[in-house]
Design brief:
single chain, 374 residues, TIM Barrel, 13 helices, 8 strands, binds alpha-D-galactopyranose
Length: 374
């Protein structure tokens, strides 16, 4: 190589180094910025865990210190048939978290959705008895929690058991076992791994009826000497709901329960709702109409600003409760993989997260970071 080529090479290397350095300085990391407040988590899908999208994985490693699996630990995925467990995807997910020293969340042990029909039936196809269902619940929890004992740090033990008005959800769990199914699930999980954290997780946690019933539930479980470590507020929220006051009030009440609080499943609906239903009830899906998919080619600047301001308001509130909030988990890494592209209407182009479809931070990312510098 002649002298000229050598110099060009050195200059090239210096340039690459400079670009990398500027990138590191210019793009802060959520987990670093919030390290004195709470952990910052994300949900990972099966596809992402296979690590084929290396840029996305790099982003996960740079930005987040906690992970939750979007689907692979749900009953229908990990335990599709009686006696048949599919551990492979979950093993890879846990290995990824351990390799990156992340706080690993298990989601979820008991839910009325994504649970196969056989769970609630006897061998003749009739409704299972209380004993049979309780036995299956215990076997499932002992097996799954037991396998990841000492590796998974916290479990969403029960998901979405209470209606917005505060009544208990009329699920097969309630119908067959009775009201004590919730405490039984917590008890089994504690027996399977005495050190793991155990949570109750739900959407619309700002509805007055729900605030009251979830608070009673936590106190009731505690009064029986059963372990419950925290409450997860699914943050499937929108530009206009809930109001800041509603989130504040909910956090204020839950913060008096003496358990950890977590914002789980955070994302923001920027597209019009087909009706005024703000729940995350996954069975509800509506027909695609053009007016309900207004930004197929990109989010206009004016909407980016609205999204950024709303996220900023959320994080100001979360920072206010940083003594109780231990983790804020986004439901997805970037906009392209979000479930919001297909719910509550299939096939829309949605923009609910802090990173765009090219893994680039959106204005909302910087407004969130700004709250911690205030
Ligand atoms: C609920 C569940 C999640 C997920 C979302 C939709 O919030 O808790 O596991 O299924 O719905 O992605």
């Amino acid at each position: 190589m002649n002298y000229f080529m050598k110099s060009i090479n050195i200059i090239l290397y210096q340039l690459i180094f400079l670009v990398l350095a500027v990138k590191t300085i210019a793009q802060p990391s959520l987990k670093e910025e919030f390290k004195n407040n709470f952990m910052i988590g994300t949900a990972l899908s099966n596809h992402q865990i296979c690590e084929k999208d290396s840029l996305l994985i790099q982003l996960v490693e740079e930005q987040f210190n906690s992970i939750t699996p979007e689907n692979l630990l749900k009953w229908e995925r990990i335990h599709p048939e009686e006696g048949v467990y599919n551990f492979e995807p979950a093993d890879s997910f846990v290995a990824f978290g351990l390799r990156n020293k992340m706080f690993i969340v298990g989601h979820t042990l008991l839910w009325h959705q994504q649970t196969p029909a056989w769970v609630f039936e006897d061998e003749k196809g009739n409704e299972a008895s209380r004993e049979l269902l309780l036995g299956r619940l215990k076997d499932h929890i002992y097996t799954v929690v037991g396998r990841y004992k000492g590796k998974i740090n916290g479990w969403d033990v029960v998901n979405e058991a209470i209606e917005d008005n505060g009544e208990m959800r009329n699920s097969k769990w309630l119908k067959i076992i009775g009201e004590d199914y919730i405490e039984k699930a917590f008890q089994f999980a504690h027996e399977a791994d005495p050190d793991v954290e155990l949570y109750y997780n739900d959407f619309n946690m700002w509805h007055k009826g729900k605030i009251k019933s979830v608070s009673n539930l936590v106190n009731n479980i505690k009064s029986k000497g059963i372990k419950i470590s925290g409450v997860g507020l699914q943050g499937h929220w929108g530009l206009t709901y809930p109001s800041n006051e509603e989130i504040d009030e909910a956090l204020d009440t839950y913060s008096k329960l003496n358990v950890n609080l977590m914002i789980t499943e955070l994302d923001m609906a920027v597209l019009p709702l087909p009706n005024n239903n703000t729940s995350a009830e996954i069975t509800k899906n509506y027909e695609l109409q053009k007016k309900l998919n207004p930004y197929p080619n990109g989010l206009p600047d004016s909407m980016q600003v609205k999204l950024a301001n709303r996220y900023e308001d959320f994080f100001r509130l979360f920072n206010k409760y940083k003594s109780e909030i231990t983790r804020v988990t986004f439901w997805g890494v970037n906009d392209s993989y979000s479930w919001k592209n297909n719910w509550p209407i299939k096939g829309r182009t949605s923009y609910p997260l802090l990173f765009d479809r090219n893994n680039q931070p959106k204005p909302a990312f910087y407004s969130v970071i700004n709250t911690v510098k205030e």
